Amino acid sequence: SSHYAAKAMGCFVLPIGASMAERQVDYLVNPGSTVLLSTPSFALYIAERMNQRGIDPSDIPLRIGCFGGEAGAEIAPTRKKIQTRLGIEAYDYFGLAEIGPTCSSECEEKAGLHWVEDHLLVEIIDPDTNKRCDPGETGVLVLTHLTKEAVPMLRYWSDDLARLTTEKCACGRTHARSEGGILGRADDMIIYKGANFYPVQVEKVIRSFEELGDEFRIRLSTDEKTGIDVITVIAEYKTKEVDNVEFKNKVKRAFREELEVTPELDLVEPGTLERTMFKAKRVEDKRVKAD
Ligand SMILES: [Zn+2]
């Protein structure tokens, strides 16, 4: 795992539980960790707690963060927030239990996840045709072990969506990369009024507004009277002043551009939405399904 890999590199590893935000902050101050490995959601939560305790990013020696477990580090507004609030360079990395803890990571160019192609055969498959996608085309990530001796996986269907490029990276590495990282889960796709989109696209919009908090929820429901499906995005305002029609319309227009649908927007007080520590579950689908 990343734990043993870091140890093998000579790092001193402090394993801290995912629910221990206060202790995380303590350890960032003293002894002063220099690298943080967590989910992007948890990193933002740690930053929030740091801020509440009056600790400035320049007060801690943290330099680098590697973020996995969920998408986020490659979503530009999220990366920017993590970098600014923790005063670090933030990198995306990816692994999955069935294949290996970490099998791809960004390099210093932040140009997508480089795959460990010496250990894995990486394919992107079109789920409709089961044929390989062309470079740059989005499909399902399918992985085959090349060097694993116990329980090797042959063409493991991850259900994660990605694209692949074999163009040489500016860092000099020639390992294939997935630009933009993991783009979503095939089963995460929200189908609403003929448009398809992923929760990460909602995240991108929410986190591009400085007036809004980092947490959000997507609620899909069916209006009892009309039988029409309704989509509502719930987000936290930072100050009450932005809870007005004009600002909400600005956010809704940004949604329209990104998702091709316009959800309802519900703004709530800061701290209302529960902070996610590990893999974020932000979609609630209560639509009445037609028979
Ligand atoms: Zn590179």
UniProtKB/TrEMBL annotation:
Residues 194-287 form the AMP-dependent ligase C-terminal domain. It comes from the Bacteria. Keywords: Ligase. It comes from Aerophobetes bacterium. This is Phenylacetate--CoA ligase family protein. GO terms for molecular function: ligase activity. InterPro entries: AMP-bd_C_sf, AMP-dep_Lig_C, ANL_N_sf.
